[in-house]
Amino acid sequence: xxxxxxxxxxxxxxxxxxxxxxxxxxxxxxxxxxxxxxxxxxxxxxxxxxxxxxxxxxxxxxxxxxxxxxxxxxxxxxxxxxxxxxxxxxxxxxxxxxxxxxxxxxxxxxxxxxxxxxxxxxxxxxxxxxxxxxxxxxxxxxxxxxxxxxxxxxxxxxxxxxxx
Length: 164
Description:
By secondary structure, the chain is mostly helical. The chain is 74% helix and 10% strand. The protein contains 7 helices and 3 strands, in the order αααβααββαα. A 3-stranded antiparallel beta sheet has the order 1-3-2. β2 and β3 form a beta hairpin. It starts with a helix and ends with a helix.
């Protein structure tokens, strides 16, 4: 919202300022937490590059996607993504099947083994993350869990609106 518009709604200006301060903290803290979580997950899946890990994570959250959708998510070109997917297929963690709706496309999915490996890595990361968080007092953990739920909801809604 523009500053002039905020001046008309003082309550909103305060809310926007609080959101800005919260966003600044999130932008600093989220990469630290994600670096830790990714490192724990990658320990469970040795030899996987960060890009391959991100691809598996994206495929895990969905029920299949096109090569172009995965390339867009990873921020790479389709040929680069195709080479990355070929390596995941050769590891036996991803399948590539023709798209029945469009013969020029393929649909990518995690294999059962890929899903199992990813879930195992996620569980290990949860356990390690819990050991880090265990030093916090119980009330802080309850507040954090509540606030993380709210954060997930806000970003889920944003992600849905970006897909439209």
